[in-house]
């Protein structure tokens, strides 16, 4: 039984590996042509060309990996319908607000604990990217209604409701519990 367990571990270690950050090698034809019997031949280059692997998105950085045990959600206060994302350096969260109730629609606003997600607004959200909702000057987010797997909200800036609704996934939102 012990030999079987060791064999399974060895198979897993050698068979399962992360290849997302590895480089791919490709042989390219050599530019030097040789003539043999009057026929021009192209010979393969013996030196492989390395391709530089690019990271898919910001989420692939090691320092921005999220841990499920430290997830934090946005809170909707039932007394005034405000949506709040609290600042907590010990929590992990990436909360997008979308233009439509679809994760493939345009990202309108973003909250994250990770600096590479926030600085410079890398997702080009028109309403910005923030560490927490309190960082938005003179701006609030108000809950309107549930919309399938999303909650519909409005952005209120300087006491004026902006016309574009913003949708947040319900998985990243929780309603404040009443006692």
Please summarize what this structure is:
The chain is mainly β and about 180 residues long.
**Separate helix tally:** 2
Number of strands: 13
What composes the largest sheet?
Answer: 6 strands, mixed
Sketch the topology as an H/E string, one letter per element.
HEEEEEEEEHEEEEE
Percentage of residues assigned to helices: 10-25%
Distance between the amino and carboxyl termini: 54 Å
Mean pLDDT: 74
Relative strand content:
35-45%
* Radius of gyration of CA atoms, rounded to a whole number: 26 Å
- Going by helix content, strand content and strand pairing, the class is mainly beta
Strand order of the largest sheet: 9-8-7-12-11-10
Shape: elongated
Please write out the topology:
Layout: H1 2-15, E1 25-26, E2 29-36, E3 39-44, E4 49-50, E5 74-76, E6 83-84, E7 94-98, E8 107-112, H2 115-118, E9 129-130, E10 139-147, E11 150-157, E12 160-169, E13 173-175
Parallel strand pairs: 5-13, 8-9
Antiparallel strand pairs: 1-4, 2-3, 5-6, 7-8, 7-12, 10-11, 11-12
